[in-house]
Structures are given as structure tokens and as C-alpha cells.
Amino acid sequence: MTAHPPQDGVATGPQPGGRPSANAGARPVPTVDVHAHLLIGEVEALVAGLPGLAEARELEARRNGPASLAVSGPMVRAVLPKATDVERRLAAMDAQGVDVQLVSPSPSHYHYWTDEDTAEKVCRLAAEATAAHCAQAPDRLRGLGLAPLQHPRQAVRALDHALEQGLLGVEISSHAPGRELSDPAYEPFWARAAETGAILFLHPFGCTLDERLDQWYLSNTVGQPTENAVALSHLIFSGVLDRHPELRLIAAHGGGYLPTHIGRSDHAWSARSDAGAGCAHPPSSYLKRLYFDSLVHDPHVLRALTEAAGADRVLLGSDFPFDMGAEDPVGALRAARLPDADFHAVRGGNAAALLRLT
Questions:
Q1: What are the start and end residues of every segment in region (Disordered) (predicted)?
Q2: What's the chain's average pLDDT?
């Protein structure tokens, strides 16, 4: 594992690549991107032609609108080599100055419309394909599988299978049809994840505001942060994080709108009996039990995120290789002008500890 030197004007002490270091002889901290995706053709081949796929695609089309779909199709085709070929992935990582990626299946592979048998096959294929992809560069790639949130009884089994493949955990969406993350049916899943120390990566796919967001790619720009905020609020206000304090959950997109607007949640928790009934502490306190990626596209928001959650709870994320990602995630982090220690913690120190790279 090669650690890339920090950007000019950031580091202040001995660094890798010939720079002096405040901790001479210490192993350099790798740069770690926790938000990177894999496209898996085997999963799409499995579901092709099944009852329910056409309806799911019609819903996605309504939610995104024709103009967005016309852009997204060519974009996905253009990034397909980076999203499937290990050598192209590694070359792109080198260009970005990224040492390690945590690779998760594209959220388009969730297929939460499938029946129990198909859902199990989807998750097994996704886990095995991700493990095989990462095994081609084991010093640079770590991976996550999927869990079928539409069938809560299967979620523990999918998590266990992913861990058996050598993956670090699973990726989940912000909800499943008819179920929020506060649903009691998920209790065994949260318990198993906490018990095993598995990583859960919360990454929404789609937004239930539907046609209200079907222009100008609002389905993503507004919808994804909204879904993050709703999902995290369900976990907090329902007491999931009280019952399972050892959960190791990373929220994509900086947790959406919630971390920077958490004061409203705190006020409701203290002012209203219905808002404060489910969790033991003010909602803002739970931010320090969660992890957040840095993909917020605004240096001021990134600074606010580190202030709200703590710099030790923020991890570098790029959404590689899609167009809503950051082509230069380290540069985006540098633009936030964090204190030197916080910069290096977010750049890789926090993730190296969480993913147990060292």
C-alpha cells in the first residue's frame, strides 16, 4: 500500500514522498476513498425480463424525468470501464492520489422489488462479484455487499454471506418499499451488524418525492440529500442507535441535509413529547456515533459537517466514477481549509482505523 503525499500547502510536518514528518519513522497514513462503486453485469442479467423490472424502471423514469434519463444513459456507458475494470480503476485512483477504495455495488443493483428467492441471488452475486473484483488488488481495494431491505428476514443472512466473502459489510438504501429504517423488523440486522463490527454504507437510490423532482436532475441534487436526512432521522429518533451503539454506519453525501440542520431536530426533541419519545439524547449527539463521507460539493458545508459531527467522523468520499462525484476528492477536501490534523484524519486516518487497514 503506497501512501500519496499531501497536497502542497496542506502538510506542516514530515510527510511521505520526501517531505519532513512530525513523526519520523511512522507509517504514512494512506488516502482512503470510502465512496466508490462497481457495476455488476451478472446482477442485471439475473433480473432481466423478470416480472416487476419493467414497473421498477417506469417508476425510476417518472422520478427522474426524460431529460435526466437522456443524460444518464450515455454517462453510465462512458464510465463503465472504470466501474468494471480493475486496472482502469487503479489508474484513476493513482491520478486522484487515492491509495485505497472501499468499493460498493452501484445502488442501481438494489432491486428492492424482487421476491425473496431472487433477492437472495442478487445479494449473493453482488457480494461474490465485489469480492472477486477487490481480490485483484487486495492491497488497494476493500469491498461491501448488499442486503435485501425489502425482505428483512434475509438481511442477516446476506450480511453474513458478504462477511464470509471477505467483504467488510454491506451497502443499504434509505428505505425499502413500505419500510423505513426504524421498522422493528430490522432489529436482528442492526444487532448482527453491531455484533460483527460490519460496515454499513447508507446510500440512497431514488427519492419518494417522485414527479416533484422530475426536472433539472432534482431527483438527485435535492432527492439524495433528502433521503439521507430522512433515513438518519429514523435511525436516531426511533432509538436504533441507543439500542445498538456499536453500529459502524457511514452515511453517503455527508448525511444529506441533516448534520447542518440538526438544530431543528434538537429543538423538536426538547419542545415536543412526540419528537422526544423514541431516543434518549438530543439528536445532534448521535452524529458523533455515525460516520459521514466528505461528498458535499461545497467547502463551507464540509467545514460545517466536521464541526457538527467532529472531524474524526468524516471520511473522504468521491462517488467514483459517476458524474455526481468528485474527480479530485483530495482537492475538494483541501478547499475546506481544515486544520492540518483534521485534513489528514479525513483524508485517510479515520477510514484506516474504521476499515482496520493498519
A1: 1-28
A2: 93
